[in-house]
C-alpha cells in the first residue's frame, strides 16, 4: 500500500506528490489526465517567478518535477469510488474505473474542476481565441477591447466589475429576468460607466472570422428580438463544477459540490485530504492550487506521524 495516494495530477496533485515524496514516504498519483486544466490553457503569465509560459509546457514541467522523485505515476486512470478505512489506522481504498483497487494510509483528493460551457455554436471553435473562462487569467489580454460576460450570478457580476477596470466596454448577459448576484455587487456594477446589462438575454451564437472571435448573437427572451454585439472577447461565467460526483455521500461537500476542508486540507473523512480547485478554497488559480497541494501533503504527513505504529 501507499502512504500517500494522490488522486488527480494537476498543479495541486503534482505539488502534493513532490512534497510527499521529499518526505521519503511511498507516494502514488492516479490521474485521468496528468497536468489537468493547464493542458487547455494558452498563455500563463501569473505563476510567480515564471514570467510567461504556455499550458502544455507548464504541464510537462509539472510531470518532469514529479518524475524527478520516486513517485508511482498512474496516468489515464479514473477513480470512481473512495472507501474510507474501517478502523483508525486502517487503509483507505480508491477504486479505479478499470477495476483496479489502490490502497493507502492517507489520500489526497485533487481532482480539480471544470467550467460549465454555454453550448452554443462558436464556443468550442473560438475557445482561447476570444472565448475565455477565467477573468483573473485572461482579463489583461483584452485590455482596451470590448467584451461580454455571460452569466449574472456572483461570478459573472464579479467578472464584469473586474473586467470593466481593464477593458473598454463590458456587456453582461443574464438568461433569467434578473441578476442573481449579491445586491452590493449589482449596485457596484450598475454604477460603472462602461458596463451595459441585459437580462432575459439568451446567447445563441458566438461568431468569428480568421480564427478570431468577433461577435455574439443573443435573443431577448421577452420580445423575441434578435440582437448582435460586436466584440473581441466573451467570458463564460455560468459555473465552475468541481469533479466530485464520485465522492457524494462519502466526503462532506458544500452546496456547490466542493470538498469542505480545514486549514490543513483535512476533509470530513479521517486520513483523507483535499487540495486545489476541487475544494472550498476560494479563488481557483494555479499558484493557489499548487500551494494548496503542498499544504495537503504536509497535512497528510503530519497525520501519518500520529498514526498508531
Ligand atoms: P486541475 O488542473 O483541474 O487537475 C485535476 C486533475 O484531476 C487532472 O489530472 C484530472 O485529469 C484529474 N481527475 C479529475 N477527476 C478524476 C478522477 N475521477 N480520477 C482521477 N483523476 C481525476 N490559472 C492560473 O493561475 N493562470 C492562468 O492563466 C489560468 N488559465 C486558465 C485557462 C483555462 C482555459 C482554464 C480552464 C483554467 C485556467 N486557470 C488558470 C485555472 C487553473 O488551470 C486551475 O486553477 C488549476 O489547474 C487547478 O489545479 P488543480 O490541480 O486543483 O485541478
UniProtKB/TrEMBL annotation:
Domain FAD/NAD(P)-binding span(s) in chain numbering: 2-293
Cofactor(s) listed in the protein's UniProt record: FAD
Keywords: Disulfide bond, FAD, Flavoprotein, NAD, Oxidoreductase, Redox-active center
Assembly, per entry: Homodimer.
Similarity-based family: Belongs to the class-II pyridine nucleotide-disulfide oxidoreductase family.
Name assigned to this protein: Alkyl hydroperoxide reductase subunit F
Gene behind the chain: ahpF
Residue window of the full protein shown: 211 to 519 of 519
